[in-house]
């Protein structure tokens, strides 16, 4: 079965016209190919909040890793839930973003009302990667 690349760009123009508290749900599914390669699927719920859009998602990915003992590639499953607020770019002053470190990983909605989930997916996937990947816990290593 041919797998499609992940479409991580979501246009929230319509959602932002609806009253605060309105929500839309999306099915997420596709191949990712950045620092890690793999397949991701799950659901994302976008909620219009006063500052922007709150994204709640529950995702499962299967990424290709290289075993640190035998150097074979294997598939490693990762599941995570994420909840992050995306703010319109114009509402995030540059100097504020620079001066407060806890704000520096702000997710944004660009001036065409496009919200990009790929950065969120990248961060959460990397966060859940094992330090020393093993294809199985008793991998004998290279013979
Ligand atoms: Zn191994």
Give the SSE layout.
Elements (H helix, E strand, L loop, with lengths): L8 E3 L1 H5 L5 E11 L3 E12 L4 E14 L6 E16 L5 H6 L7 E3 L4 E3 L1 H10 L16
Parallel strand pairs: 5-6
Antiparallel strand pairs: 1-7, 2-3, 3-4, 4-5
The chain binds zinc ion.
Explain what this protein looks like in three dimensions.
A hairpin with a 6-residue loop joins β4 (53-66) and β5. The chain is built from 3 helices and 7 strands. Mean pLDDT is 88; it is low at 100-104. The protein starts with 8 loop residues before the first strand and ends in a 16-residue tail after the last helix. A 5-stranded mixed β-sheet has the order 2-3-4-5-6. A two-stranded antiparallel sheet has the order 1-7. The chain has 143 residues and is mainly beta. The structure holds zinc ion. Residues 67, 69-70, 72, 134-135, 139 line the site of zinc ion.
Radius of gyration: 18 Å
Ligand kinds: zinc ion
Largest sheet: 5 strands, mixed
What do the pLDDT scores average to?
88
Bulk shape: elongated
Question: How much of the residues is beta strand, in percent?
Answer: 35-45%
């Amino acid at each position: 079965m041919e797998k499609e690349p992940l479409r991580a760009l979501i246009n929230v123009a319509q959602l932002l016209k609806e009253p605060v508290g309105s929500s839309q749900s999306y099915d997420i599914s596709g191949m990712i190919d950045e620092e890690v390669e793999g397949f991701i699927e799950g659901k994302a719920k976008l909620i219009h909040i006063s500052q922007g859009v709150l994204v709640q998602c529950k995702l499962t990915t299967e990424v290709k890793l290289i075993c640190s003992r035998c150097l074979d590639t294997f598939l490693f499953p990762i599941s995570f839930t994420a909840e992050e607020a995306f703010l319109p770019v114009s509402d995030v002053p540059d100097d504020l973003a620079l001066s407060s470190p806890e704000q520096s990983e702000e997710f944004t909605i660009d001036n065409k009302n496009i919200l990009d989930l790929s950065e969120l997916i990248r961060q959460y996937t990397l966060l859940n990667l094992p330090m020393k990947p093993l294809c199985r816990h008793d991998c004998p290593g290279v013979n």
